[in-house]
Amino acid sequence: MRKQRGLLIVLSGPSGVGKGTVRKELFSQPDTNYEYSISMTTRLPREGETDEVDYFFKSREDFEELISQGKLLEYAEYVGNYYGTPLDYVNQTRDAGRDVFLEIEVQGAEQVREKVPDGLFIFLAPPSLSELEKRLTGRGTETDAIIQSRITEARKELEMMNLYDYVVENDEVERACERINAIVIAEHCKRERVEKRYYEMLKENV
Ligand SMILES: Nc1nc2c(ncn2[C@@H]2O[C@H](COP(=O)(O)OP(=O)(O)O)[C@@H](O)[C@H]2O)c(=O)[nH]1
Ligand SMILES: Nc1ncnc2c1ncn2[C@@H]1O[C@H](COP(=O)(O)OP(=O)(O)O)[C@@H](O)[C@H]1O
Questions:
Q1: Which of 129, 149, 176, 198 is least surrounded, with the fewest CB atoms within 10 Å of its CB?
Q2: Residue 79 falls within a domain, yes or no?
Q3: Is 105 close to ligand 1, i.e. is its CB under 6 Å away?
Q4: What is the distance in A from the centroid of ligand 1 to the CA of 199?
Q5: Which mutation among 28, 54, 102, 135 tests ligand 2's pocket best, with the greatest number of atoms within 8 A of CB?
């Protein structure tokens, strides 16, 4: 039987909603069935981050070379640094029948939508804008001015949520993960239903 190509799962949403937190929780679960696509970035590693585990850390020059060679499925400039998804890894993993999981900001997700129409797009939403502000403040990695510009940006990003296949509210991390896992299972069932092999089943002589 022909192996079904893996899904491309894209998790996106505004800064501070909890994308990184939810992704880390999903990948810490022993039964996770997706492959995480490690992104390329020009930002410097933070304390505790490891090259080729958290990101492939690149110079600006090397990153621009990857762009010009068409090696990235998508890329975006975010707060002064480039971030991008390696194209070969995504294709090879999907071709091997494994699902690939991207955790990327919204500009990048828009590019993936154009290039991969059969992708599964999940928007992670905050319970409210005030809770989003609280999370950004609580993380303590940005100044007040940057937090305000992220909130302004988030208002625009929230308007884009209806372009996504699913909206998952990140009220509690565990619950958000459960919803994402349920969506992926449901999407597999839906896509397999329209696979040719089920039509072939009807030709069986029993
Ligand atoms: N477009 C795009 N965004 C990415 C990629 N990898 C990470 N990001 C996003 O870049 C943003 C900044 O990431 P990072 O510097 O690790 O900071 P943090 O996630 O806010 O702690 C986050 O919104 C990530 O989801 C990528 O490959 N492409
Ligand atoms: N469900 C949640 N409830 C409360 N706080 C959360 C939740 N999810 C994430 N956070 C916190 O919100 C902040 C932003 O989360 P982070 O994962 O860095 O967001 P993003 O990757 O979307 O920018 C972090 O301090 C994180 O611990």
A1: 198
A2: no
A3: yes
A4: 42
A5: 135
40, with CB counted inside 10 A (0-12, 13-18, 19+), is buried
Q: What is the CATH number of the domain that holds 16?
A: 3.40.50.300
Provide the number of structural domains found in the chain: 1
Residue nearest to atom 1 of ligand 1 (CA): 108
From 141, 146, 162, select the one nearest 47 (Cα to Cα).
Answer: 141
Q: Is 43 in the pocket of ligand 1 (CB under 6 A)?
A: yes
Identity of the residue numbered 37? S
Which pLDDT does position 200 carry in this prediction? Answer: 78
62, 106, 122, 157, 165 from 162: Cα distances, Å:
35, 13, 10, 10, 8
How confident is the chain (206 residues) per 10-residue block, as mean pLDDT? 83 95 95 94 94 97 98 94 97 96 96 96 96 90 85 91 96 98 94 73 82
Q: Would the CB of 19 count as within 6 Å of ligand 1?
A: yes
pLDDT at 2: 55
- Is there a domain that residue 192 lies in? yes
What is the complex's ipTM, to 2 decimals? 0.97
